[in-house]
Specification:
Layout lengths: L1 H25 L5 H8 L3 H13 L3 E5 L9 E5 L1 H38 L5
Antiparallel strand pairs: 1-2
Length: 121
Amino acid sequence: MPDANKHTAKALTDDLTFQALRQLQANPRLSQRQLARALGISLGKTNYCLRALIARGLVKAENFRTSKNKLAYAYLLTPEGIDAKARITARFLKRKQAEYDALKVELEQLLAEAQADGLID
């Protein structure tokens, strides 16, 4: 079971990284609060995530030069961040395709059972 938990934790990390990179690439001027809302996580977790992405060299934070709010940042994907997003996207799609295939099989089985039991035509 520890391997399954490790895999799940990795998948969650990949999902959060993927979603954060995706959001930031689409809108680098998102505030941490806006990013937290978009990701469905707390502001504290968002701050931790951004710091980790910056530490890994995937994102860089730059002050807005034109902003009146000098605490405002633009979170820009680095070339490494763009490469990482591409790799994570491939893993994400592969995992989602496997989930879809498994769900499709399960739905077909349930449909066959329901038809056999006369619950549906």
